[in-house]
Amino acid sequence: MTRCLLAARGNRFLYSGFPTKSSVVQVREEIKPVALWKPDPSFYPSAKMAMQAPPERHAYVAALNPAGSNKPDAICVVDLDPDSATYCQVVNTLELPNIGDELHHFGWNACSSALCPYAPHPHLERRYLIVPGLRSSRIYVIDTKPDPRKPQIIKTLEPEEVMAKSGYSRPHTVHCGPDAIYISAMGSANGDEGPGGIFMLDHFSFNVIGPWELHRGDQELAYDFWWHLAQDVLISSEWAKPSQFENGLVPEDLLGNKYGHRIHFWDLRKRKLEQSIDIGAEHQMLLELRPSHDPRESYGFAGVVVSTEDLSASIWLWYRENDQWQMKKVITIPPVPAEEKDLPDLLKGFKAVPPLVSDIDLSLDDRFLYVACWGTGEMHQYDVSDPHNPQLTGKVEIGGVVNKKGHPKAEGPLLGAPQMVEISRDGRRVYFTNSLYSTWDDQFYPDKMTGWMVKVDVDPDGGISLDKDFFIDFGETRVHQVRLEGGDASTDSYCFSS
Amino acid sequence: MWLAMILFGAFHGLNPGMGWLFALTLGLQQRSERVIWLSLLPIALGHAIAVIAVVLLVLAGLQFVPLATVQRFSALALLAFGFYKLFNYYRHPRWVGMKVGSGDLLLWSFLMASAHGAGLMLVPALLGGSDAAHAHHGAHALPEGAGMFLAVGLHTLTMLLVMGAVAWIVYRKLGLAVLRSSWINFDLIWAVALLIVGSLALWMSFAP
């Protein structure tokens, strides 16, 4: 019971102490794929089969040290095996060799999509983490074998190379496709403006192949992307140009509705923009995209951070009707009134806390949607069995701009709030961290936010509760995306319907 | 010759990467068993066209150069290609998506068969057959060509039957979980097979 608290102290020590052994970087020149005789056991034909997978034993967590700390970012390995002596602790920290990368999202080199029949690569190995630096435009390839607790950098794509070959900068979302690794990027090469887009990495050599789009139409802003793989559809969303986020949220741009509010539907095969939908300029920052995992279905959910009309956040459903894509608001989360003195400068005038939905995640059975409210400090669970009519089935509170709600295993109030969510393959455990983006953290949580990771237990019939024993304190280091060993609910795509 | 044609047909039929899995997925996606069987036809046809293209090349070659030269040349080509595949067995042409019509499937199958040297693999067996034809009946271009096409037809028919059988068994009995346990590395086997057949063919072309 006290192990986690000890672990928390241990982490602080890890960060203030000497670099761990594994942070000595070894760079192997050539990456030769290992000849597997059978498919990687973590590849599953369908999402339903993947839900039978054994529980995850490790999480990889992107850790960032904000500017001024003079410390590099890191990938932390967290022990998630309840039977292990080091459960709920950071068992290793792989420090990166550069300072200021700003780790954010990352992903696996290969996943269940490798079984897709139109471009099968069943003997690839889920082994390498593709880790982009959102600020530096550098990309690290990190090997998690042979010892999953001791990942090592085996290749680094320097910013110059990434930009020259891809035409883009500020790499963000990584998805393992059946034929290549796809990465979205926020900016164009050599510039703080657009257009942002998507580029590809070779599955085997990890070299940049080039930009993905052949006909981009008028798409300019970029952020997240994912696909309906079995329907040749790629979907992309809009955040902002690098100049609109790197030095912090630009209030004038937000009030002027200059952040992204469109969603784009592409022909994945022809690499061509087919349809864009503008959901209304007041719906600022259309970010995370979570398509149904069932390849026969053609719907998904998109999160909108804030409405400039009423400060609400919203979840939108995309679906197909009359051969066209449609967007419909299915969840609205209202702001919470607050005293001016309790609010950071940015929000004082509004006398309310916006929910700020920064991340969403859909369980592998397409039943539960998790929604992180980074402003109000809440994690919501919705039953989306009927995607057109989500029902709120659970809620936990932690952190928050005003509430700063604590955790049984942490001392005092907590800054930050539910942000990046990850769901285990079986849907029984949900992990989340509290940092959004270094400069934005400081705007909404100006009192020196620290990094933490918590876990939520899921009732199979709906309902969530905070695991009172699971709290990992990362100290001044902030933590962002969590990736689970063997895959999770926002990694793998499936070409087979059970 | 006939046995080799049948065996290679069966091997292609078994390999999920060569067609049956694509057909099965399309059927599952469209909730129609009929789609599975209908999709197999263009896949088999595309494969046959790729092989026939090579046969035509060989027949054309035989008009200008002696049989032994063609044999040696194709054996060396097999060895070179096998050596390349041994180190690149995991690379495949990348072209289609999942929403495909018969034309797409035909072209996909043609590309896969061509890129993996399916036609080239059959050349030694075909030439062996034509060698026998020379010995017994004397040179006669037309029946020789007809024999080759018959062999290709047999090869394709075997492939189609095996594909259909495997797709049926997986669809009706085993379920897709079988992919996790039984999708062995056909690509690596193929690379080794190319090398073995190439070596045998080279040896035979020098044998008396």
Would you write up a description of this structure?
The complex is a heterodimer of chains A (498) and B (208). By secondary structure, chain A is mainly β. Chain A has one domain (3-484): YVTN repeat-like/Quinoprotein amine dehydrogenase (Methylamine Dehydrogenase, Chain H, 7 Propeller), CATH 2.130.10. Chain A is built from six helices and 30 strands. Chain A has helices at residues 3-16, 47-50, 159-166, 251-255, 345-348, 438-444; strands at 58-64, 74-79, 90-95, 107-108, 128-132, 139-143, 152-157, 168-176, 181-188, 197-201, 208-211, 225-228, 233-236, 262-267, 272-278, 283-291, 299-307, 313-321, 324-333, 336-337, 352-353, 357-362, 368-373, 378-383, 391-397, 421-423, 429-433, 451-458, 464-475, 478-484. The longest helix of chain A has 14 residues, at 3-16. The two termini of chain A are 39 Å apart. Mean pLDDT of chain A is 92; it is low at 1-29. Chain B has one domain (2-206). Chain B has helices spanning 2-14, 20-29, 33-64, 67-88, 102-115, 118-137, 141-174, 178-182, 186-206. Residues 135-142 of chain B have low confidence and may be disordered. Chain A binds chain B through residues 33, 35-39, 41, 43-46, 49, 115-124, 179-180, 204, 229-232, 268-269, 295-296, 495-498, and chain B through 16-17, 21-22, 24-25, 28-29, 31, 89-92, 94, 96-100, 108, 176-177, 179-185, 187-188.
Shape, principal axes of CA atoms of chain A: globular
Broad CATH class of chain A? Mainly Beta
The count of DSSP E runs of length 2 or more, i.e. the number of strands of chain B, is: 0
CATH superfamily of chain A: YVTN repeat-like/Quinoprotein amine dehydrogenase
Name the average pLDDT of chain B.
86
Biggest pleated sheet of chain B: none
Task: Report the span from N to C terminus of chain A.
Answer: 39 Å
Return the domain count of chain A.
1
Indicate how many domains the architecture of chain B comprises.
Answer: 1
Number of strands of chain A: 30
The poorly predicted ranges of chain A are 1-29
* Average pLDDT over all residues of chain A: 92
What is the CATH topology classification name of chain A?
Answer: Methylamine Dehydrogenase, Chain H
Q: Helical proportion of chain A?
A: under 10%
Largest interface: A-B, 37 and 31 residues
Helix percent band of chain B: over 70%
- As a percent range, the share of strand residues of chain B is under 5%
Keywords (chain B): Membrane, Transmembrane, Transmembrane helix
Transmembrane segments (chain B): 6-28, 35-58, 64-84, 105-127, 147-171, 183-206
Organism (chain A): Microbulbifer marinus
Protein name (chain A): Methanethiol oxidase
